[in-house]
Structures are given as structure tokens and as C-alpha cells.
Amino acid sequence: MAEYSEEKRAMPVEVVLRRFFRDVQQSEIMTEIKRRRFFEKKPTRFKRRQSAQARAVRRKAFRTF
């Protein structure tokens, strides 16, 4: 995540907040928190990972054309 130093304090608060929320969203912290909110059984985790791999394969095949 980006650092917020002294030189950036001259920026308006809205700009700093927007940058912070963009950094959080790009690092996918919130999606990880939402995913870990409830316990996930192993079969469910396996199924989710399989579908993610299938999506990645389809996406890669689609991008090669």
C-alpha cells in the first residue's frame, strides 16, 4: 500500500481519502475480510478455488484470440 508522507499532507482531505480507499480496493483487503467473515468448509473452499481456476482458463483462452 502507498505511504502517506508529510508532502502529501498539503493535499485536501478528500483527495487523500480517495487515494486511500482506492489503494485498499486495489489490494483486495476488503474482499479478503468479507470472505473470511464466516468459516468456510473445505469442500466449499475447494469448489470456489476450482471455479476460480476455470474462470482463469476461460479468461486466458478468450484473451488469446
Tell me the radius of gyration. Answer: 18 Å
What is the helix content?
Answer: 55-70%
How many H/I helical runs?
Answer: 3
Which secondary-structure class do the elements indicate? mainly alpha
Largest sheet composition: none
Query: Averaging pLDDT over every residue, what do you get?
Result: 86
| Number of discrete domains | 1
Strand content: under 5%
Describe the protein in words.
By secondary structure, this protein is an all-alpha fold. The chain has one domain (12-63). 66% of the residues lie in helices and 0% in strands. The protein has three helices and no strands. It has helices at residues 13-26, 29-35, 42-63. It is flat.
Task: List the main descriptive attributes of the protein structure presented here.
65 residues, mainly alpha, 0% strand
In short:
Helices cover 66% and strands 0% of the residues.
Task: Show the helix and strand layout.
Elements lengths: L12 H14 L2 H7 L6 H22 L2
